Amino acid sequence: MSKQNNFRRYNPLIDEWVIVAVNRINRPWQGAKTEKSTTISTSSNTEQSILNPLAPGGTRSSGIANENYVSTYVFDNDFPSFTEFEECAGKDENDDLFKQHEVKGVCKVICYHPNSQLTLATMDVKEVRVVIDIWNQQYLELGPKYEWVQIFENRGAVVGCSNMHPHGQLWASNYLPTLPMKKHESQKKHFEKHGKVMLMDYLEQETLKKERIIMRNEHWTWLVPYWAFWPYETMLLPNRHVERFTDLGEVEKQSLSEILRSLLIKYDNVFECSFPYMMGWSGAPTGSFLTENCSFWQLHLSFFPPLLRSATVPKFLAGYEVFAEKQRDLSPEIAAKTLSEIDEEHYSKKLQ
Amino acid sequence: MSKQNNFRRYNPLIDEWVIVAVNRINRPWQGAKTEKSTTISTSSNTEQSILNPLAPGGTRSSGIANENYVSTYVFDNDFPSFTEFEECAGKDENDDLFKQHEVKGVCKVICYHPNSQLTLATMDVKEVRVVIDIWNQQYLELGPKYEWVQIFENRGAVVGCSNMHPHGQLWASNYLPTLPMKKHESQKKHFEKHGKVMLMDYLEQETLKKERIIMRNEHWTWLVPYWAFWPYETMLLPNRHVERFTDLGEVEKQSLSEILRSLLIKYDNVFECSFPYMMGWSGAPTGSFLTENCSFWQLHLSFFPPLLRSATVPKFLAGYEVFAEKQRDLSPEIAAKTLSEIDEEHYSKKLQ
Ligand SMILES: [Zn+2]
Ligand SMILES: [Zn+2]
Predict the structure, then answer these.
(1) Which residues lie below 8 Å from residue A30, measured CB to CB, with a gap of 6+?
(2) Nearest to A49, CA basis, from A41, A40, A58
(3) From the CA of B179, how many Å to the nearest CA of chain A?
(4) Is A47 strand, coil or helix?
(5) Does pTM top 0.95 for this prediction?
């Protein structure tokens, strides 16, 4: 890997940026044809550490060995898109048609648990809570330094992650990326126009309409957004106004661990498989935004699962959707109804 | 299938619409795990017509049989996202947070050739020219009636099309979809600011820079956009200002058939496979836009191939990309260099 930072370029036709991570081209590729998500068959911890580069003591493709961790474990991504080197692999350009800027930051992997056979859905509430605390700690540590800290998880080969060890990622950057920038602007505009926080306003109306709400507890509501794109796309919202993850109280975090585990069990039960998904947190930006007014932001957790009809048939983002407009077949209301009615006990327990 | 039109909904967080095609949920699913693209092994025309629902005389999943066509063949999609029924499956809503509109239109399939074993890359120039004339005829026929006529092709199981019979699609709608709308606005803005057509201005600068131009003839230039996202994303541009496909002259269409075939051969040669791609035309909108000034538009043909390292390893759009910002690993300049240097003779001819 070259010792230079990557850069991003601007697409003036559709007003989006794209990161050009020339650093990463030589990284080993572990993925993944589209295949049924499976958990690794029962094996001892010793076998695991040989087989799985994310397990305690496991050796990663970079040759670095993991600590013998017993709870969560955070390490720097061996092939990061964001780095903090002195130089950049590309020069800044500022023309309207040729716009390119250096990107800096850090990319980490967050292992949720030492046991490769567990998932957030099959870990117990106490273990999920530990993951939530790790997320909080990362936001506290990286927020002051970076404009945007993206915590996310790709689960399953069908979304490009073939290692089923329970883990997510964190990418923190010295700039506000395309999508959070859009969310920043739209929430700001909504507040200026209506004097209300967009997603609070939205949650209030959904609470009355009822038809897209799947599950709620005292502090959180899980729903299918009216505008959902992915077949079983959902959003988890705090019931009160919360700008950032780090604004959550202890009780809210405890409550989050409960509803997060419950909703992931429901997901697994849809097709009786370890449901593949992309999951990501969004809240008010950090870094220089910490001293700005971001009160129009509402924290939310998005789930984008690609499966539509079975454990092996993913939704393709193709053709008309990449040239003109996205499309979904299943209505958001039917998706909400399916998820509402599905069992709250994990299917694997019933098979025993 | 219900006899009701579909609708689209607005996502106020990221300013995008999504089509909710509740009509389509019951369509038969022919796709596709990620697999190496293959052509059907040699078989007689009779066998083909039994095996392949897109071949002459073939029976489609709807039970409808194709004509015994000998050149190109256009038919209405049996499970269309756009229809022209009397009623809509959803009521119009116009709230800022709950915005939903009926969509109307037509979806067609365009078979390029009766022979299931050919592709645009392996057809001869005369046969490619016939496809171009069919595209032109469709634009002429549907343009006056619809605001946007999207001609596109998904090629290969990896982009969701498992039927290798040479074919593309056309979706025409009574509204301007999300991405063409963005292109409309950005090109307009560029013209207002610079007094130049954005993509003409861009082509002029790329012609001087040279490093992303792959191939050109008298009327067309094939290049990797500075802001390309897909690993081998490219764009084909007319050398002069052309607003719409139907503005192309006879000589330009002849020239297009030549360069289109040549560039697709290069694509196939990258990994010595029938290269999967999404291909789509964009030009000034039609319908009510035909009487408006759209002179800031430049016609272009985009190619979004998902392969990165081999015939079986696709790029995933996942994780960070769906929550924050798109990323590519290969630089646009290296992609351009690879495509420039690759052979112009189809690999299948060399294997013989
Ligand atoms: Zn992973
Ligand atoms: Zn197809």
Answers:
(1) A61, A162, A163
(2) A58
(3) 5
(4) helix
(5) no
Task: Point out which residues pair with B238 in neighbouring strands.
Answer: B220
CB-based contact A251:B295 (threshold 8 Å)? no
Nearest partner of A39 among A343, A211, A241, A268, judged by Cα: A268
Q: Are B333 and B212 in contact (CB under 8 A)?
A: yes
Looking at the complex, does the CB of residue A162 fall below 8 Å from at least one CB of chain B? no
B154 close to B162: Cβ distance less than 8 angstroms: no
Query: Got the DSSP string for B28-55?
Result: ------S----PPPP--HHHHHHH-TTS
Q: What are the distances in angstroms from CA B257 to CA A40, B135, B262, B311? A: 51, 12, 9, 26
End-to-end CA distance of chain B: 47
- CA-CA-CA-CA dihedral for A303, A304, A309, A314, to nearest 10: -140
Say how far apart CA A102 and CA B17 lie, in whole Å: 31
Q: Among the bound ligands, name the one nearest to the CA of residue B165.
A: 2
Burial-class residue B91 by CB neighbours within 10 Å (0-12, 13-18, 19+). exposed
Per-residue DSSP letter, B59: B
**Among the listed ranges A158-162, A175-179, A343-347, B164-168, which one has the minimum average pLDDT value?**
A158-162
Contact by Cβ (8 Å): A338, A312:
no
Q: How far is the CA of A271 from the centre of ligand 1 (A)?
A: 22
Taking CA atoms, what residue in B is nearest to A182? B14
Tens digit of pLDDT for each residue in B57-96? 999 988 999 999 999 999 999 989 999 999 999 999 999 9
Give the per-residue pLDDT at A350.
81
Q: At what angle do helices B198-209 and B178-194 cross, to 10 degrees?
A: 80
Q: Which of B7, B13, B223, B333 should one mutate to test binding to chain A, selecting the residue with the greatest count of A CBs within 10 A? A: B13
**Which among B253, B233, B220 is positioned nearest to B339, based on CA atoms?**
B233
Q: Is the pLDDT of residue B31 over 60?
A: no
CB contact under 8 A, B316 and A32: yes
| Candidates B167, B184, B219, B300; catalytic one | B167
**A284 confidence band (pLDDT: 50, 70, 90):** very high
**Where does A195-319 have alpha helices with state H?**
198-209, 250-270
pLDDT given for residue A29 in this prediction? 44
ipTM for the complex? 0.93
In the stretch 208-237 of chain A, residues with CB closer than 8 A to chain B read: 225-229
Strands (E), A48-90: 73-76, 87-88
Pick the CATH number of B50-84+97-350 from 3.30.428.10, 3.20.20.140, 3.40.50.2000, 3.30.1490.20: 3.30.428.10
